[in-house]
Every structure is written in C-alpha cells, then in structure tokens.
What does this fold into?
Amino acid sequence: MAEYKLMKGNEVIAEAAIRCGCDAYFGYPITPQSEILETLTLRQPWLETGMVVLQAESEVAAINMVYGGAACGKKVMTSSSSPGISLKQEGITYLAGAELPCLVVNVVRGGPGLGTIQPAQSDYFQSVKGGGHGDYKLIVLAPASVQEMNDFVDLGFELAFKYRNPALILSDGVIGQMMEKVKLSPVKPRWTNEEVIKLNGSWATTGKTADRPRNVATSLELDSARQEQFNHKLQAKYKEIQEKEVRFEKIACDDAEYLFVAYGSSSRICQKAIDLAREKGIKVGLLRPITLFPYPTKAIQEMAEKVKGILAVEMSAGQMVEDVRLAVNGKVKVEHFGRFGGMIPSPNEVVKALEDLIIKG
Amino acid sequence: MSDIKDIIKDENLVYKKTKVLTDNVMHYCPGCSHGVVHKLVAEVIEEMGIQEKTIGISPVGCSVLAYNYLDIDWQEAAHGRAPALATAVNRLHPEKYVFTYQGDGDLASIGTAEIMHACNRGENIVVIFINNAIYGMTGGQMAPTTLEGMKTATSPYGRDIKLNGHPLIITELIAQLPGTSYVTRQAVHTPAAVRKCKKAIRKAFENIGQKKGTSFVEVVSTCNSGWKLSPVKSNEWMVENMFPVYKPGDLKDE
Amino acid sequence: MTEEIIIAGFGGQGVLSMGKILAYSGIMQDQEVAWMPSYGPEMRGGTANVTVILSDNRISSPVLQEFDTVIILNQQSMDKFEKAVKPGGVLIYDPNGIVRHPKRKDITIYKVEAAEEATRMQSAKTFNMIVLGAYLKVRPIVKMENVIKGLEKSLPERHHHLIPLNKQAIDRGMEIVKEA
Ligand SMILES: Cc1ncc(C[n+]2csc(CCOP(=O)(O)OP(=O)(O)O)c2C)c(N)n1
It folds into this structure.
C-alpha cells in the first residue's frame, strides 16, 4: 500500500520519464501541462540520473532539440498543449521522415487558435491523420487515468524504439490536472553510451567508427523513385504496427445492446454513464481505444455485429466518430455526442444523448 | 449640503479617465504594471487624436486581453508573432499608427526572430515591451529576462546561468539595429517615472507620424503574483535588482 | 462504498489541500481516489473548487454533475452547487458571508462556523481543517488515524510540526458542526 502515491497526471509524466531512463526533456510552458517542466526542474534529475532538462525558447526549438537528441539514439521527449503541439508539427514530420524514435506528450486544450485552457479532445485528427505534411503516422496512446500516464511513458518509448517512429501520448486537461492513486514504475537506469551504440548504432549519430558506414539522420531523398521506395517501407511499418500493436479495453460489453466508443477522459465519463443507464435498464457497454493509431477497427467491427447502435463520445465536434463509422461500415447506426471548446459532458448528458440519438432516434 | 450635480461640474474636474480606456474591469492582479501602461498608451492615443488611426497588436501573455481595455481596433497574434502581424498592417496601412504590446516571454523568447527582423527592417511601428522577468499568464515560469538566482516555477532553486544561460538583455541588441530610431527603457513605479514613461510613449507614437522606423519602449515592470511579493515590495525589489541589469534611460534617439 | 464530494469556495481558503488530505486518507485505507480541481489563470480571489471521489471500486468519471456531499464556502459556490446535491445527500456550509441560505428540503443541511472558529483559534490556516472536521463528523467515511496519515503524506516535512494544530482544528470542526 505504501508504494501508492497521490499525484497529478502531469507530475506523473515527469516522474515516469526520470524512472524509465529518459535522457532528455525539452519543453516550453503552456497551460494545462506546465507542471511537467515544473516537476522536472524541481526534481533536478540531472543530479540523479544525468537526464537533461531544458526550457527551450519555443516549442519549435524544443521539438528540434528532440530531433537532435533522438538522432543520437537517446531517449528524448517533449510535451506541450494544443497550440504548442501545432508548432511542433514541422519537427514531428521531420522526425517521422528520418525514422527517429521519440516521445511527444499533448495535454489537449480547446481550440481552434488560442482557444481555451480547459480540457478538450479536438486534436484527434491532428494526432492520427498526420498533423504535418507527408504520408506518416505516429503511434498514439490515449491514457484514461493517472496510472496510465505513468505506464504509457515507458510503453511509448518502447514502441518508438521498436519501430523507430515518434510516439505520442494524447492526454487532456482532465487527466493532466487530476490527482489519482498511482503506482510508479520501478527505476531503470539510462542507457550507457555503449548500450546506445549496441542498440541503435546502426542508425544513430554516435560518431563514425572505422567498422561502419556513416550514419546520417535525414528525411531528404531527391530521387523520386527512391523516395517512393522509402514511403513503401514506411507504409509496411505502419501496417505491421496496425497488426501487432492494437490495444483497447472493453467494459460491460458481454450483454450490451448498445455501445459507447470513447477514449481518454471521455471514456471515464462513459463508465459512469454506463452505471446510470443500466440503472434505467439500458444495457450499454464501452469500447475504449487505448491506441488511437493503430486503431481498434476490428474490435469495433465485431461489436457492430452484436449491438443495435453505437455512440462515439468525444470532447470534440466529431473527429474519432469518423473512424468508428469506417469500422462499422453502415452495419448499425453510429452517432456522435460531444461537448467542446473546453466544456466537459456530464454522465447524465451522455445517457440522454444515447437515448435521444441512438435508442429513440 | 451641496448637491452632487454641483460637485461634478466640469470646472471642478481634476482627473478624468481617458475615453480610449473602456469601462471593462481589468483582469490584472492588483499592483500589476500592465494596467498603468495601458492607461498611458490610451492617454497618448487620445491626446494625439489618433484613436481612429491606431491599430494594436496584442500578444499571448497576461496582456492577451488588452483588446478589452483600449477602445481601438486590435489584432490578437499567436505567441511571439505580433511583430509579423504589425509588419503586414504597417505595409498595407502605411498611414496608420501600428503598435505591438508584448511581454518578455512573447518578445524575447518565442518571438525573438520576429522582433529582430521587424526592427531590422525598420517597420514604422511602436513596440511596447513589458519586461517583468517572468511568465505571468502561465503561473510564474522562468522568462528569458529572469535574473540570475531568481526563483520561478521552472527555476525553483534560482536561475542557474550554467543551466539556463544569461538574462537576455534584448533591448541593447535591438538598439544596434539600424532600423530602430528610438529605443528607451522606462518604468512605472513612481509618479515621476509614470510621467517620464508617458513622454517616451508619446515620442514613440509621434515617430510613426514622422516615418522614423521602429520605436521601441521597454517598460521594466513588476509581477507581484509571480514574484510572490506585495506590490510595494515588488517595486522595491525591481529598483534594487532589475534596474542594475536593465538600466533605465534612452539607448538611442535619432 | 463510493462517496462523491465537491468542495467549493475562494482560492486561498485551502479548498484544494483539504481535498488532497481527504484523498490521501482514502489511499491510506486502501480505497480508490480521484481529485479533480478547477484550474485557470491565477486570478487573485477567484473561485476554486475540487471534486474528490473515494470508492472501494474503480472510479469512473472524475467530472460529475451531482454529488453525495457538497461543501460550500462562499456565496458564488452556493448559487452554483446547492442544486448539485443528490436527493437525500448532504450540504455543509460556512454561513460566513452567505446572504442566500440553502432552501432545499430533500437534503440534510449542516452549518459550520469555520471562519469564526479559525479567528478564535488565531490561525486562519486552520479554516479548511475545521471544515474537514465538520465533514468527517457528518460523513465518517475515513478513520481519524488515516486522516492523520493523510496529513503526514500531503504536508511537506517542514510543516509536520503543524499536524497537532490541524488535528485540534479537525476536532473543533467536529464539535461545532450542527444541523441547520
Ligand atoms: C505557442 C504557445 N506556447 C505557449 C503558450 C502559453 N503561454 C501563454 S502566455 C505565455 C508567456 C507569457 O509571458 P510573458 O510574455 O512574459 O507575458 P506576461 O504574462 O508576463 O505579461 C505562455 C508561454 C501559448 N499560449 N502558445
């Protein structure tokens, strides 16, 4: 019991980074995620593990610091909230194009533009459909609890290095600001320089030795035929990720006649809505995508065979619902319910939307 | 007893809020410098009779809502980009009085490129630069202008030059750019300083009329919430600690 | 058991830290807990509220519309949250500064003169602990020993000498709370 702590989601991201042997964090203040940089500067991990922590002059600089660090084969991360993540998009597509592993955390707030500092889930398209230019994908993890904020830092790095691809934790102001009970991961030491060479020496800029050709981190390929070849390689990688890395959770689905599909904080609200609906005799379950790319398309397809209708609940004007519709492919009715611009739907509103849009509608 | 109507006659008037300031309640913390500087800019606009000709560019920072307080047309920029917006407005409306109003994070961190290039091009604009050595809006993080040893939310043990570099004395850099004609550093901690600061702002706006290029007015300011001091203590702290690094006075007047 | 609470008042009244102590007390007795604050630009004297949930089961939504217990410490919060008490639920408030008192008949209403008592104890900082005491008297959902452990966990080491004073304040709150 003693190992449980009460911590904010944002603080946990910082603590988990130190514990998983992260080599560097580069960030810039923005609400509602400034506690990540604040916790790191308070903890001073450079004294403990040698981890570098730097407040960059901007988000653009921060993501390019990540590029530099990632190309060294090190575990490097950044975090921000929506407006800052928009600025990082250029760097992110360069990282994807150079096949560099890294971890980006987005604690989403409402937009567009400067918008609001209150929670939202309106960066789904940006996260899973490619926020920058070119054909690329990020591995996107959607935590729904403070515990998962801890767990997904390690998982994010693991997947990023496994596939040499940037990974994104798509959180929001609720999960970032909320405190819950959390069991922190055990401490892993940072990779030594020898380990980096052993693990990532085939591509990282660790200093050219006589026994290998030079390593160049680049996304440039002027020969179109080769650029197409490279894109095929990327697509094959994304296909492999889609086949192997889908993660989701099903709640109260066994006898469900209706289904919520929701991720992150919306999935928490849906769990309460399930309790309220079942008190009224409405048998509804929840499918919670944990990975947003790869998306649990198959699992949703299977549920579409069993239920009468599906409600996608998101704090957006309707983004993920498009992927639910693609998966369901017209089998049953799919509707969207959401509050946005920083408003959070209440469980009661969600039940009412289920009744109005799906059951009666 | 005299009737209130007799008392509020024009001849008894000693002070009146400029009509360029709106009646909206300001969101600034009590003791914050932003409110005073807003008033000075508003008074200069009224006195010069340029309300219809002035276009303000507000930043991202505590003064993001400046457009609620000055009754002129405004554009609200992305963080750090106000000088780029001002450039376009100046080019498309050369007859207008265009000014940016920016904090130190906005101007000297994320927006360093934009401010340098706008000043270097000598855009015919005024830049009001509020240097409170901290990020006020986001809850007191370190700014590029944070002093050595100063405690903030992201330098909780004091700014360490080895980790975070030196306080960026950006106004001195700006003064070297040939595009700038008037570069000055002011403060608003005493009535005398307020009067002096107003004169500087007036001169900067007049320079626009004379097509003199960029006029840059830094106002060394307090952030008592972020500094965790009372307003009075903040002023004392500013004089003692900020002034030696950010020395008040004109840097350039051509 | 699941208890869903909201504590609402001014920033600076110790609303958030009271919630934190309650949440820590829950952890000390092996419960699931959630603590969800309102957040925003730090404006002096603004309103602050925090939702705290303690449960024997996995906690679902940290954002709720109605609560088992609502603790109200200023008029704005009264206007906003009186209606958020579940029928049969509990409303606890400090009448200090309240001009429109709660009117609902389908809930139990308690008063705690916490501001007055804190002045009497000559420590404004004890205010939130007096309120916590009142709450624990009405809803004894966590054991006192776990509250003390919660205090130890949530206070930085350098403030541990204040724990006896906090304990005293909790006791006072328990004594002075009364049904309205
Ligand atoms: C792209 C982007 N990054 C970060 C932020 C968050 N942010 C809002 S205000 C601010 C800094 C404000 O500091 P300063 O410019 O010094 O002005 P002050 O608030 O002190 O007046 C930051 C980093 C943002 N809104 N947009």
